[in-house]
Amino acid sequence: FLCKNFLENHLKKNHYSVCISEIFRTFIPMKEQVTDISKVLQDMTAEMRLMRETIDQQYAEIAKLNRNIEALNHQIRKKDEENARLKERLSKYEKPKKNSSNSSTPPSKESMKDEIVRRTKSLRKPSGKKPGGQAGHDGHKLSCSPSPDEIIDDMPNYCTNCGETLADAERVLDYVTQVVSIPELKPVIKEIRHYVMICKKCGERVRTAPRRKSNDVIYDASVKSLVVYLSVVQFLPYGRIASFLREVFGLAPSEGSLVNWVKEAKRNAQPAIEKIQEYIMSSSVVGFDESGCYCNKRLDWAWIAQTVYYTLLFRADGRSSKVLTDKFGDSLERMTAVTDRHSAYFALHFLNHQVCLAHLLRELQYMSELNTKQNWSDKITDLFREAIHERNSNPSAIIPKASWLERLDNLLKLNICNFGKKFETLKKGLIKCRDYIFNFLEDPMIPSDNNGSERGIRKLKIKLKNSCTFRSDFGADAFLELHSIVETAKKHNKTPFNAIQALFEA
Fold first, then answer.
1. Cβ neighbours of residue 250 under 8 Å, at least 6 residues apart?
2. Looking at per-residue confidence, does 217 or 471 come out higher?
3. N or C: which end of the chain has fewer CB within 10 A?
């Protein structure tokens, strides 16, 4: 009994879960009479020492296994995180690709497959009508000139029936055709002989103009205007312009001369550029946009500000709101800006704002392609298209926007968490610009999109596609300013060539 109590107290003190009954059953047989307690205790102590060593070894092994398990769990967590990242990277190949029809991706950055689809497939819904001119369409054809430059009589010389000559036969007009051709393209060389008149009274030698100090052969305004037209309107590099003049007209001006003529046009255009800026600063509705402009081994930004009658393009080193503040100053507070959702525009204190619905419709189109089982994006698309149709049907009416905002709010209140993160992002963006979506309904002067600004700045991208970059700051500024003149002239129903020609004849 004393031995049993001793073992129980000893084991409890050392926290070893050992069955006491098993120990006594092993070392102290119930039928044997214990005569030497000290020997039994010694044997039990030795056995307990061995058991403690075994337990310590097992504890160390368990601790080692626990550490290995923890290390393996850490590796598994890292693998899970890596798999999640890889799945996210691979998901873009499973989702619909973004292109110019469902996002703000420019056409120049589309894949060849997307470009083929865009060029061969119309976004318009089929009307069911046959292609071509419809019944009742007047059609168009070339009109005969009332004063042709040359008249040619076409008549037979002999009779096809009997072979008799028709020189003295009666002539009856059957019908008239006119053929339009380009005259022989060769330069017209004018020799101007400058005389000095000597006054009989005072002997003064009088000239019509100061004597030229350069070479005796020069090019007139027609050649200069054509060069600037090909550079600014047709987006040709100087090398191709020189090749065109040489092969078609037989002229051989140097590329340095072409640059000088563009400089002259830019210099003559300065008063008109200043006037255009003044008119835009006094306008109530102005569209803005910006795009990258590669210039002199760096990326600058080209900006456009345009109204119904005027267009101004200029270059800056960034796309922050400070650019417009420095350019237009306090006049921004009197403008209604028509823009995309670039954050720089919302940092400015415009009088009012209208976001481009064309941009929003493209983003909604991507959402419809991303998840074809939902109709949330389709409902918002239908709402925007209905509003645009309402404005087009009533171009001069003032349409209250309260009911349209209420319909939009009802759609924005819907829970779309299960559609994905991109839907939540678009929803937050729509909530942020909610007050600037339907302003075009209440003011007929405000357009529903910013397509005018995008069309105006697109010419820059075509120029960069042909020439890749501007090699100097002056070349970039010259193109943008002369392009402002051309676009403004087109808005006043003037041809670009005549507008450029006026710069040299002023």
1. 186, 187
2. 471
3. N
Cβ pair 234, 241 in contact under 8 A:
no
The closest of 359, 358, 379 to 368, measured between CA atoms, is: 379
Model pTM score: 0.73
Cα–Cα distance, 224 to 386 (Å, whole number): 50
109, two tokens = 């950055």
Rounded to whole angstroms, the Cα distance separating 313 from 456 reads 9
Buried b (16+ CB within 10 A) or exposed e, 445-463: ebbbbbbbbbebbbbbbeb
Altogether, the residues listed in the chain come to a count of 506
Distance in angstroms (rounded) separating the CA atoms of residues 37 and 193: 148
pLDDT tens string 315-372? 999 999 999 999 999 999 999 999 999 999 999 999 999 999 999 999 999 899 888 8
What is the pLDDT, as a whole number, of residue 442?
A: 94
Helix axes 37-94, 2-14, angle to 10 degrees: 30
Residues 6+ apart with CB under 8 A from 225: 497, 500, 501, 503, 504
pLDDT for 214 equals 63
Give SS3 for 316. strand
Beta bridge partners of 68: none
Distance CA 317, CA 291 (A): 11
Residue with tokens 């698309």: 381
SS3 of 378, please? Answer: helix
Q: 415-462, pLDDT tens digit by residue?
A: 998 988 889 999 999 999 999 999 999 999 999 999 999 999 999 988
CB-based contacts of 72: which residues, under 8 Å, 6+ apart?
Answer: none
419: left (phi over 0), alpha (psi -120 to 50) or beta: alpha
pLDDT for res 210: 79
Contact 376, 485 (CB under 8 A): no
Alpha-carbon dihedral of residues 303, 392, 431, 341, nearest 10 degrees?
-10
The model's pLDDT over 13-70, given as tens digits with 9 standing for 90+, comes to 444 444 445 544 544 444 455 567 888 888 888 888 899 889 989 999 999 999 999 9
In tens, the pLDDT along 102-133 reads: 777 777 677 777 777 666 766 566 777 777 77
Q: What are phi and psi of 191, to 5 degrees?
A: -100, 120
Write down the H helix ranges in 212-303.
221-232, 238-244, 255-281
Q: For residue 215, how many C-alpha atoms fall within 13 Å in the half-sphere facing its CB?
A: 4
- At residue 458, the 3 state secondary structure works out as helix
